Amino acid sequence: MQNEVIDPKLVEEFLSFTKNVTEAPKLVPAPNEITLESTPFDVVYEQDKMRLLHYKPLVEKQIKTPFLISYAIINRFHILDIQSKKSWVRKLLENGIDVYMIDWGTPSNIDKYLDFDDYVNLYMDNCVDFVRKEAQVDNISVQGYCTGGTISTIYATLHPKKVRNLVVTAPVIDGWKDTTVVSNMAKHIEIDTLVDRMGNMPPEFMYYCFSILKPFEQGLEKYYKFFKNIHDKEFVDNFLRVEKWLSDTPPIPGELFRQWIRDIYQENLLIQNKMYVGGKQINLKNITMPIFVQVAVGDHLVSPECSMPIYYAVGSEDKTMRVYPIGHVGMIASSFSQKQILPELCQWITERS
Amino acid sequence: MSQDVKLPLDYFKHVSLFWTDLLHLMSGKPIALTSVGPMRNWANDAKKVVTELMDANEDLVEFNQRLTEYYKQLSETWTDSQKKVNAKIPTIPQDVEHIEAYKRVWIDIFENDFTQLFDSEKFGQNYGKLVSAELELSKHWENITNVILQSMKLPTRKEIDEVYKELHELRKRITKLEKKEDRNIAK
Predict the structure, then answer these.
(1) By Cβ atoms counted within 10 A, which residue in A131, A210, A242, B2 is the most buried?
(2) What order do you get walking across the sheet with A140-145 strand by strand?
(3) Are residues B32 and B115 located together in one domain of the fold?
(4) What pLDDT, in 10s, does the model give residues B43-102?
(5) CB contact A232 to B (< 8 Å)
(6) CATH at residue A71
(7) Cβ(B78)–Cβ(A216) under 8 Å?
(8) Which residue range(s) make up the domain with A40?
(9) Who contacts B88 (Cβ-Cβ below 8 Å, separation ≥6)?
(10) If you measure CA to CA, which chain A residue comes closest to B175?
């Protein structure tokens, strides 16, 4: 009989796991009950649904040049401040950097005609002007993460005098070199039909894209580990925060999404200096300020081959590239980023501010 | 769609349209004498709805073909992955350590095979067409909704889109004017 060879530990493990599942609602809050903001900030500027956040300083000595983070257009900015021990923002503040962050907000149907021109030349430019005015400086440091890295890159080509230093973290630059499943789908989607019919890019479509990235590790194993570690408060807190962040996927304005998919993934115009934003040609050689490119080897959303070409395409003489042995989210919200990535970045900024 | 399915469907569509059109024309004049309200358009609206439903039926065939191919690709990959797992570990272990190792092997093989599938040309092409077919179906639904909205004298999606576009242009113009004014004040 098979029953005779079953390890008693296996039965014990199964019963313990079942108990954890049953007890879970008593032990942990629902994701909706968790507040994601952890480092205090003021909303200092708003335009339509976009907000500019200014984080309160944590140390007395401040670097003069402010640091503006342009978050991605996918999901929300909270991942950069997901938990105090893994907070990108907090680490910058602890190093005396004056941090501002653009929260693009949650677009609705009325925003379907917003495009790159609006994001770069209106929203971002207005934020940069606001920060310059408030800090009384001519130019500021700008960082863009993921798709925010692309927006920052385009901004720096069009408004180079306002950008003192440019930091791009996993930016989407060379669409044809991207080897991820996301790029495979982006290349095959009939983008005009999608945008004409749907208006904005619906969140459900993004959920689908996320679900096919490591479907078994992320779709099954992750939840198994969650219930197995249900008594580990730190693990559970971190898990729920990331899960809540993952589920908060705003729609992407239709025209922005159309240009994004067509110009960057399908026709690959950005790296060829053939892309137009607001009627102006984007030439990456216009980027002559110091640039720091951060790339992750294990990035399954933006592959390193897609980000790295910016290093070779810009006109800057002072340029640095670091390739880290981590993934897309791990690069900005992990113990590794706290120990390795952020100290390097803070030093790089301090030396150039 | 195959020829033998398309022809009877086209014929059916043609015959239906012929009779609804003809009856609408034939009944139009006597009814016009007596009808004074918006119900005059009812037959015409009903015809539009029926036409959309028939066209949707055609697109449903394309959608189903793409959806079948989608699930076929998933199930074939699943079967192949499971075969690889079985070849590596023929029997499911019955103790904690080996179960954990089995799970790891299972996840690694499935993850690898499915990522290869999602990254493949054949998946990308079919998925792209599947989404397009789904969008075609939604277009028919939207057209039907627009007929109903128009019959109720409410704005259609196209009309709302025009308002959105106008608002977008206005917001942009206002922001540019504000910036210009700020620059003038600064001077």
Answers:
(1) A131
(2) A41-47, A50-55, A99-103, A67-70, A140-145, A163-169, A291-296, A319-324
(3) yes
(4) 778 888 988 998 899 899 999 999 999 999 999 999 999 999 999 988 877 787 888 889
(5) no
(6) 3.40.50.1820
(7) no
(8) 34-202+251-351
(9) B105, B109
(10) A122
